[in-house]
Amino acid sequence: LPEDARQPIYVDADQAEVDKNKGITIYEGNVIINQGSMKILADKVTIFNQAKKVSRIVAKGKKGQAQYQQQPDAEKDLVIAKADTIEYLVGKETLHLLDNAYLLQDGATMKGHRIDYDVRASMATATGQGNKGDNKPNSRIQVVIPAKQLNREKQ
Amino acid sequence: MPKHWISLLLLIALTVLFLVFWESPPALLTGAKETSKPEFPAAYMINSHSQHFDKTGHLDYEIKAAKVVHYQATPGRQQDSDHADITSPEITLHTQGRKPWHLRAKTGRSNSDGSQIILTDDVQGWQEDDDGQRNELNTDELVIHTKRNYVETDKAVIINNSGHVIKAIGLEADLNKETLRLKQRVRGVHEFEQ
């Protein structure tokens, strides 16, 4: 929701380590992060502080992928994202989904090596891996837009 | 020698052996060094302020207290069981190149050489940063290793690290390196960059 970004960030985890010099807090074990309607689930989360405020959050999955969900607006469906690593730039409200990235938004899905998602503008940019014309797995992106949404756009 | 004499002698020997073991103190059997528990205070101090220095002459830590009662099992000879009970201890741990950590509680106990002090009952710790913000620590019990500037507890603890509040069960903190490890059931609340 628009007011999410002004909410404090709540974290639950099994263990944590704080390194004041480096300005980082590392949470490990069943990590759950909540900020308003935004939620991140991961095995390991590193919170970076800048001038003692949270500036960046990096979530990594070990047993599974890191997961993210947020409600962009009261009328819209949840945006759901998964990746091996999720980086969230708190101030810019930007999400970087790195490695095996997946995004579900308004019924449309997007897959690729990397997806950058602007939370405020609800805009996603996906990039594959490797050079043009490669046919390696993950080298291209896949987008699936449900027929219903296509028809609605045609009218 | 007829048989019944031998068995009689055997019986007597066993009885004597049993009685010897029954009467002898455990230390004889287990070989453990018997340390007697100090029952009476050897000395006490009222409104004390002690300063402790390291080998290079740097101030390591200070202890202020309303009252310190020192117990020594054998006057003049230090033993492991010797200790000091402290009322309203206020400890300042000096870490080189950084602001000191202040720790206080209602009660405390120091071991025989002061290398370990256990604070109990409403333990509060704080350190002020260069910009005046405070890092705080609150728990029910805290073990301070004075020679290593290292503190630990297995109790519930609340850390307030410049506005980021973290609750957990169990803590280990190296005050020289300024690193903390929170052991179980961690709950954090972080303010964010506006």
From TrEMBL, chain B:
Q: Name one GO molecular function term.
A: glycolipid transfer activity
Query: How is it placed in the membrane, per its record?
Result: Single-pass membrane protein
Q: Which residues form a coiled coil?
A: none
Q: Which domain of life is it from?
A: Bacteria
Report the subcellular localization.
Cell inner membrane
Under Pfam families, the record lists: LptC
Q: Is the keyword Membrane assigned to this protein?
A: yes
This protein is called what?
Lipopolysaccharide export system protein LptC
Mind giving the lineage of the organism this protein is from? Bacteria, Pseudomonadati, Pseudomonadota, Gammaproteobacteria, Cellvibrionales
